Amino acid sequence: MAANNIVEFEVVLANAAVVTASKGSHADLFQALRGGGNDQSFDRSYTLEGHLIEEVGSQRMPLRAFKR
Predict the structure, then answer these.
(1) Measured between alpha carbons, how far is 9 from 28 in angstroms, rounded to an integer?
(2) What's the rounded Cα separation, in Å, for the pair 64 and 24?
(3) Which of 8, 35, 59, 65 has the greatest number of C-beta atoms within 10 Å?
(4) Do residues 21 and 30 make contact, with C-beta atoms less than 8 angstroms apart?
């Protein structure tokens, strides 16, 4: 879930003001934007938190076509 990794949004409000919404600044707006749905804002940018992945695995899986 990518929305869980968002740290902050830069948003243009209806009055043309540009604000940064995060947990510490404009927290109510930040929660509304993270909640998804059809919000009425223009997001100029957002910041995601990255996570280190130390090991990645893969697996081969043959796919066979079935004839009828």
Answers:
(1) 12
(2) 53
(3) 8
(4) yes
CA dihedral 2, 50, 45, 15 (to 10 degrees): 70
pLDDT tens for each residue of 26-55: 998 888 887 765 555 566 677 777 777 777
Where do the H-state alpha helices sit in 1-68? 27-34
Instruction: Find where tokens 């919000």 sit.
Output: 39
Answer yes or no: is 62 within a domain.
Answer: no
> Please, are residues 46 and 6 in contact by the beta-carbon 8 Å criterion?
yes
Question: Hey, what are 7's tokens?
Answer: 């740290």
Which two structure tokens, joined as six digits, stand for 68? Answer: 């009828």
Domain count, the chain: 1
Is 21 among the domain residues? yes
Asked, for residue 20, whether it belongs to a domain, the answer is: yes
